[in-house]
Specification:
It comes from Thermanaerosceptrum fracticalcis. The chain has 27 helices and 18 strands. It is an alpha+beta fold.
């Protein structure tokens, strides 16, 4: 199912279901006051922190930060897309989905994709059957030498592609599969004479599944010395290497409960890990981690441990992927395997406990990068020390926590025998060449997918969002004060803008209705936390005035900084006239700022830290 689902249908469906009733099918809930509480289904915990509000029809976990409405719960718990969650609830309520939602062309495309899945499933079972017949004897012996059990072969549906040039092709053509379908799915290719031949021949086969367990493609490993050693399906309507993680369909549950994912490089690494009880392991299909793969993992956890092969290519893949994970807000650590062993080799020789010990000893991202820098440069020389520091400065600059940054600076100073003040000077030098800090990141941050207020400005932004959503008649006042420009965090901007557009279009929607139309999952979780954690102020008119004053004050601070930077540039260029004009404007802003501060001091507010 695809296409835009009518808002009226979504709203009607939501009012027919009770979120408490739905969530109770997945976990026990007990009443506490006006809400229901239980153990969070998305992370391990002993004390209940998962709260469901029947009044607001939303949920929020105060432990891991997951939150949303009934649709987002089903999407998160069952790995459904938004349309699939809607369809599930519609069937449950006995409601027919709107027929005009899907165009005839889209319906044809969906039907075609479903046929592709069915073909891939047939091929998977065919390869799997051959593995345990005479033809797959060599592949089975290889798996036994690698230490894999029959249970693991069954769990991951391993198979064998026969050596004949066109055995699979002929079988599928007999089954009425079209030649163009074989080519589209990458199961066959054209020989020089124009005949179709099998793409995978005499290979151990690894079916690659999506999160729902549907086979989207294949990986094949040779059983002799021919090249390439590994061959994957080409890009198809179902498969693209950078969009999937091997084993995620099996690992997503353990990842949620353990609140950690172990990222490996190859098929054998993951299968061996699962065989040894390390069931939260996935693989990147032999490529550097992509942003799309990182976001897939973040549906289940923000804690990642990367464990790639010991060869140089594996190390490079580690470094390329780490920055993506960090930039998306994950807690990143790196598992190092001693003696140049690959993860599956280490597990088979040393066992599960030894591997778990390596995970516990995994280095945080910056410490791992420091280790690599010390291996690369001679830190016994002044030049080597400088190269190490300069190589780490971009990463240090991005560390949000002052405590974490200072802790690493101390570690770096100790390792290099450098004074801390010199490292601070290098950071300042780097910052002078960078754009100003993002004020949204300064005021608001996400930690383990949880919204955290760290300043009076952030608290005012949260309260203003709550007021705007719950009391729509105040929207003109907010717009007059600056509207969306008052907010510094992208998620809050999205929430405010959507609320504004929906109200202006005449939709009388409730807060939990609004959540369904937010595109970013981060925005849904932030709104859920605001609605669940923050009570609507009793004296909301005063709260509104305080919020607008505080946010206007922050806006003026940004303008003063902006114009001060421009004034310095004008002075450097010798443009005295423009510099004086900017100075006059700054003075006006400062006077206005002082008036606002006086207003806050006179009236007091509830936003002080």
């Amino acid at each position: 199912m695809s296409g835009r689902i009518p808002e009226e249908f979504i709203s009607d469906l939501r009012h027919r279901v009770d979120i408490v009733e739905i969530i109770r099918e997945y976990l026990p809930l007990r009443k506490q006051g006006n809400n229901f509480i239980g153990l969070c289904p998305f992370h391990q915990e002993k004390t209940p922190s998962f709260v469901v509000s029947p009044q607001k029809q939303i949920y929020h976990c105060f432990g891991c930060g997951k939150g949303g409405n009934v649709f987002s719960f089903l999407m998160e718990k069952n790995s459904l897309s938004y349309p699939e969650a809607v369809l599930y609830l519609a069937k449950r309520c006995g409601i027919t989905m709107p027929e005009n939602d899907v165009s005839p062309e889209k319906a044809r495309q969906e039907k075609k994709k479903q046929r592709y899945y069915e073909i891939n499933e047939f091929v998977t079972q065919y390869y799997h059957r051959l593995l345990f017949e005479g033809a797959g004897k060599e592949a089975l012996l290889y798996l036994e030498r690698r230490g894999l059990s029959q249970d693991s072969c069954e769990k991951f549906l391993l198979g064998y592609a026969p050596q004949a040039w066109d055995q699979l092709t002929r079988l599928l053509l007999d089954k009425k599969v079209l030649p163009e379908e074989l080519l589209i799915l990458g199961l066959a290719s054209k020989a020089q004479n124009g005949n179709l031949i099998d793409r995978f021949r005499n290979r151990l086969m690894f079916p690659i599944c999506d999160e729902r367990g549907r086979v989207v493609g294949f990986g094949g490993r040779v059983l002799d010395d021919s090249l390439p050693k590994y061959l994957n399906s080409p890009d198809t309507p179902l498969f693209s290497k950078g969009r999937f993680l091997y084993g995620l369909n099996l690992a997503k549950g353990p990842i949620r409960t353990q609140d950690q994912v172990i990222i490996m490089e190859g098929y054998m690494d993951v299968i061996t890990a699962h065989q040894h009880g390390i069931s939260n392991a996935v693989a990147t299909l032999g490529t550097a981690l992509t942003t799309e793969q990182a976001r897939m993992m973040m549906r289940y956890t923000y804690n990642t441990a990367t464990c790639f092969d010991a060869d140089s290519a594996g190390q490079e893949a580690t470094l390329r992927g780490l920055d993506i994970l960090r930039q998306l807000g994950c807690h990143v650590s790196v598992v190092t395997i001693p003696d140049g062993k690959d993860p599956d080799e280490f597990l088979n020789k040393q066992g599960r406990e030894a591997f778990l010990k390596r995970i516990q000893e995994a280095l945080p991202l910056l410490e791992y990068k420091l280790q690599k820098m010390l291996e690369k440069y001679d830190a016994s020389t002044v030049n080597g020390k400088i190269q190490v520091v300069q190589g780490l400065i971009p990463d240090l600059h991005k560390v949000q926590s002052p405590v974490a940054r200072q802790g690493f600076i101390q570690l770096l100073a100790d390792k290099l025998g450098f004074p801390e003040v010199a490292i601070h000077a290098e950071i300042r030098k780097y910052q002078q060449g960078e754009a100003g800090p993002n004020t949204g990141d300064r005021n608001l941050k996400l930690s383990k997918n949880k919204f955290v207020a760290v300043s009076a400005t952030a608290k005012a932004e949260r309260t203003l969002i709550r007021l705007a959503v719950e009391i729509p008649e105040i929207t003109p006042q907010i717009e007059e004060a600056g509207g969306i420009e008052l907010f510094t965090h992208n998620s809050l901007k999205e929430i405010y803008q959507l609320n504004l557009v929906m109200r202006q279009a005449g939709h009388n929607i409730k807060a939990n209705d609004l959540m369904a139309f937010l595109e970013a999952k981060e925005s849904q979780e932030i709104l859920a936390e605001i609605l669940m954690a923050d009570e609507l102020p009793q004296d909301w008119e005063r709260a509104l005035r305080d919020c607008l004053t505080i946010l206007e004050l922050e806006y003026i601070n940004r303008k003063i900084q902006e114009k001060s930077n421009l004034m310095i540039q004008c002075e450097q260029k010798g443009d005295i006239s423009k510099s004086q004009e900017l100075m006059a404007h700054i003075q006006q802003l400062v006077i206005h700022k002082q008036r606002l501060i006086a207003t806050l001091r006179k009236g007091g507010n509830g936003f002080e830290n």
